[in-house]
Amino acid sequence: MAYTEVSLNDASIVVEAAGLSELLSIEKLAGGWANSNYILTLKDDTKLVLKIWNEQSLDEVNYLLSMTSYLFEMGVPTPPPIGFKNGKTMMVKDGLAWTLLPFVEGQWLESNHSSLYSLGVAQANLHLVKPPVELKNNFSMGDTLFEKLFSIANENHGWTGFLEMLKTESDLLNERMSKDLPSGIIHGDLFPDNVIGTKEKVKSLLDFEEMCYGVLAFDLVMTFVGFGWKNGQPVAEHWNSLLAGYQSIRKLNDDEINALPDLHRLATLSIAAWRYWQFVINFPNTEHTDRYLEMTERLDKELPF
After folding, report:
1. Are the C-beta atoms of residues 191 and 111 closer than 8 Å to each other?
2. What is the three-class DSSP state of 157?
3. How far is the C-alpha of 123 from the C-alpha of 106, rounded, in Å?
């Protein structure tokens, strides 16, 4: 994993460029596999997040900042990028984008009834937002990543058991699943470290890097992949709480309900593939090398839908 070390002086330059109060302190912020994140505390007690985008191009960051700003304007609870005095929302240093965001006080959202009900409400409201014209329609952890892994396997004669399984499963799911399920804006990665809350409700949705135009019910079950399991088993109460909150805003139709098992299987495979790409191929030989197995071990479990 690439990481950018930032000094107090480096951060002070960024804060000054935004016309903000003097910087008092900087500390690393946990979380994030593709970015370097820091909490900045200013002289007026304001707290900000400094994010250095280590794995995204400048064009990709510009796109993501535009999408995040749009969602904020549409009422989605997510921190908008802070503008600099030159009118832009990012600085470029050593070829990387540096951005500032408001710091949201809270904790990673817990998997209790009220929190998951609140998350379901927030996700349904996101799904009702009109997609902007510029929104991409490619989910980067889905078929695109699968094909990249298969191409690497072909080039390197590296067809592992996992990749063979992934190819078989993805082919079957593509044949079986309906192409006409309701679609719109999806987050694509609502896992606990992407949701800030209190002990009872959502405060902010973070990291819309997988945001795209996609199947809405797929996004819902992806959230269940992140929040709905404990000790390797699905928790029916967690699903029921998430679904109740969601359906208080947007009802699933019969086709969506029937597709839930296949959509959940695809979501589980997508996370497994991302972890395999990140920790087996991209950054091998770490303590995370086998993290993809957590997902593959879920494929034979009975689901609450």
Report:
1. no
2. coil
3. 19
Which residues are within 8 A (CB) of 22 and not within 5 positions of it... i.e. 6 or more apart?
12, 15, 42, 43
- How big is the CA angle at 101 (ends 119 and 118), to the nearest 5 degrees? 10
Instruction: Please give the Cα distance from 60 to 64 (Å, whole number).
Output: 6
Token pair 């005095």 is at which residue?
Answer: 85
Backbone phi, then psi, for 185, in 5-degree steps?
A: -70, 125
Alpha-carbon gap, residue 22 to 231, rounded angstroms: 46
| Maximum CA extent, the chain | 58
For 273, the 3-state DSSP assignment is helix
Alpha carbon distance 229, 254 (integer Å): 25
pLDDT tens digits, the chain, 305 residues: what are they? 568 999 999 999 999 999 999 999 999 987 666 789 999 999 999 999 999 999 899 999 999 999 999 999 999 999 999 999 999 999 999 999 999 999 999 999 999 999 999 999 999 999 999 999 999 999 999 999 999 999 999 998 789 999 999 999 999 999 999 889 999 999 999 999 999 999 999 999 999 999 999 999 999 999 999 999 999 999 999 999 999 999 999 999 999 999 999 999 999 999 999 999 999 998 899 999 999 999 999 999 999 99
Is 176 in a helix, a strand, or coil? helix
Assigned token pair, 182:
């309701």
**What's domain 108-296's superfamily in CATH?**
Aminoglycoside phosphotransferase (APH), C-terminal lobe (3.90.1200.10)
Which class would CATH give 8-103?
alpha beta
Domain range list for the chain: 8-103, 108-296
Place of tokens 């804060």: 15
DSSP annotation string for 143-155:
HHHHHHHHHHHHH
Instruction: Assign 186 to helix, strand or coil.
Output: strand
- N-term to C-term CA, the chain: 37
